[in-house]
TrEMBL record:
Pfam family, one: Otopetrin
Name the record gives this protein: Otopetrin 3
Spans through the membrane: 27-49, 61-79, 99-122, 134-153, 221-241, 262-286, 306-324, 344-366, 473-492, 504-524
Superkingdom: Eukaryota
Length: 539
């Protein structure tokens, strides 16, 4: 038997080796991802600037090779690495919150449906299209199905530092390049727009007009979901890459958070439901007009008027919530939290999408100096959107960095039946309800426990109105972000239809700008809902 000192020295000797392996894995996988992304960007840029030398077929062949390599690594992991006798599968809780998993499944399913419509559209034009146009989306469907299964149902932290990280980085780089291709590729949209206007190639007509219109409409409607899936998949793979080989000690285990309850929330819930229902009515009106013909000016005025009213209300609520955060006596959570850091980065990065589109709109409107009502509404909408994003980000980030209002750990020492105020101002029973003997502490410790418990309860009672206000504001912003997510996600894109920016920047340039910012804006709304729910339950 080895002595404890020998075991400790062996354990200390393994630590530098583990650190070196982790650093080496991060270095090699990071370099792999960087080179793959740069090579993919070179292919896409070459296609954009010289469509004769590098065609879309060449780019899709390159992307298919990346997908096949990623699939080979995922299958190798599922069939070989995870089945080894010494493999310990850890579920990556940081990369798998319920709302993130649901989003990945939702957008993955919509992306698969998008490619099904694409296959149908290509089959209807098989007489004038290459058969590879059918093969490419089939590979993409297989890639999405296996990737979603791997992310949701496999333990990734048991992977080796080099092979695991390189595989994750290769898959993440593939998702990023697929997103970039979806942002810049307007060939299908141009083809559909030309066909609808009757300017398409007469030698490549669809024999079944009804079926082609269904495929076209479904493809255009579901197109943003593809970009959304790539962004979510990339972010989850990044968190998993950070957590490869990471072990969470027992004393660092994640504690259960307070449950979501709507008790006591009235005004924010009513205002949010009103905004949600009104937005659905405007959305349906817009879609009905869009199906019959292009949306008229009245529909666009109604849409932008709704935003011009709602966005300032959301900004005022976020500012009020930030002020209340400053008045609270809760301490900041300064512990290192990779999930929270990624949430903040994604929140700030995703906000750049709509902010960028807004600034482009402002420049176009001011430069052309139009004077009608619609253009003034678009200008007000763009300015309001920038302010709302900034104020909401500050409110969410402040809330995420606050200590949650949970049970005081010192109060547990007072006995198994100690009660105190919980996050909602209600009394909760301490978690130690087993029949263990109550420890007897000296008089000084018991007096200190009483003093801390009394101060804790007094603080909860005094801050009750602040917590209630934070919950009202959070639930109002949650419902508003939901309707602002529904509108662009399900085909409401007035930035394409109003015509001002399109005529100012040109079709291709404005298409790239909107396709870059719109998926980020949709991702921002969805990510904001998750952050606001965390602020709500921790208030």
């Amino acid at each position: 038997m080895k002595s404890s000192r020998e075991l400790q020295s062996m354990h200390k000797g393994r630590r530098p080796q583990t650190r070196r392996a982790r650093k080496a894995g991060q270095l090699f996988s990071g370099l792999l991802a960087m080179n793959v992304v740069f090579l993919g960007c070179a292919f896409i840029s070459s296609m954009i600037f010289n469509r004769v030398a590098i065609t879309l077929h060449d780019v899709k062949i390159f992307f298919s090779i990346l997908k096949i390599l990623s699939l080979c690594w995922i299958i190798y992991y599922l069939l070989c690495t995870s089945r080894k006798p010494h493999a310990v599968l850890y579920r990556d809780s940081h990369a798998g919150p319920v709302w993130v998993q649901g989003s990945l499944v939702l957008f993955g399913a919509c992306t698969i449906l998008l490619h099904v419509f694409g296959i149908g559209y290509n089959i209807s034009h098989i007489h004038c299209k290459s058969q590879l146009e059918i093969l490419f989306p089939c590979i993409e469907i297989i890639f999405i199905c296996i990737q979603v299964w791997n992310v949701l149902f496999s333990g990734i932290q048991s992977l080796g530092h080099i092979d695991g990280r390189c595989g994750l980085m290769l898959t993440m780089a593939t998702d990023l390049l697929l997103w970039l291709l979806a942002v810049t590729n307007d060939s299908v949209h141009k083809e559909i727009e030309s066909a609808l206007k009757g300017n398409g190639n007469s030698s490549c007509t669809c024999p079944n007009t009804t079926a082609c219109r269904v495929f076209q409409k479904g493809y255009v409607l579901l197109y943003p979901f593809n970009m959304e899936y790539c962004l979510i998949g990339s972010s989850m793979l990044y968190v998993m890459w950070k957590n490869v080989g990471r072990r969470i000690p027992p004393h660092h285990a994640i504690h259960a958070k307070p449950k979501f309850k709507l008790r006591g929330v009235i005004y924010g819930l009513l205002l949010g439901i009103s905004a949600l229902l009104l937005g659905i009515c405007i959305f349906l009106t817009y879609q009905i007009q869009a199906t019959s013909s292009a949306p008229n000016q009245e529909a666009l005025v109604l849409y932008y008027s709704y935003y011009v009213v709602l966005l300032p209300m959301m900004a005022v609520g976020a500012v009020a919530g930030t002020v209340i955060h400053g008045l609270e006596e809760r301490e900041l959570d300064t512990l290192k939290n990779p999930t929270r850091s990624l949430d903040v980065i994604l929140l700030m990065g995703a906000a750049l999408g709509q902010i960028g589109i807004s600034y482009f709109s402002i420049v176009a409107i001011v430069a052309t100096n139009p004077g009608d009502l619609l253009d003034r509404l678009i200008l007000t909408y763009a300015v309001s959107l920038i302010i709302q994003h900034i104020t909401q980000n500050i409110f969410i980030i402040e809330g995420l960095h606050r200590q949650p209002l949970v049970e005081d750990p010192d109060a547990r020492l007072a006995g198994p039946h100690t009660q105190h105020s919980g996050p909602s101002g209600e009394e909760t029973v301490g978690s130690h309800t087993s029949q263990e003997p109550t420890p007897v502490y000296p008089l000084e410790i018991r007096q200190e426990i009483r003093r801390v418990s009394h101060a804790y309860s007094h603080t909860f009672g005094r801050l009750n109105w602040k917590r209630k206000a934070l919950k009202e504001i959070s639930i109002f912003l949650v419902l508003c972000n939901i309707i602002l997510w529904i509108m662009p996600t399900f085909g409401m894109h007035p930035a394409f239809e109003n015509g001002l920016e399109k005529s100012f920047y040109g079709y291709s340039t404005w298409f790239a700008i909107v396709n870059f910012g719109l998926p980020l804006g949709v991702f921002y709304r969805m990510h904001s809902v998750g952050g606001l729910l965390e602020v709500y339950v921790s208030s």
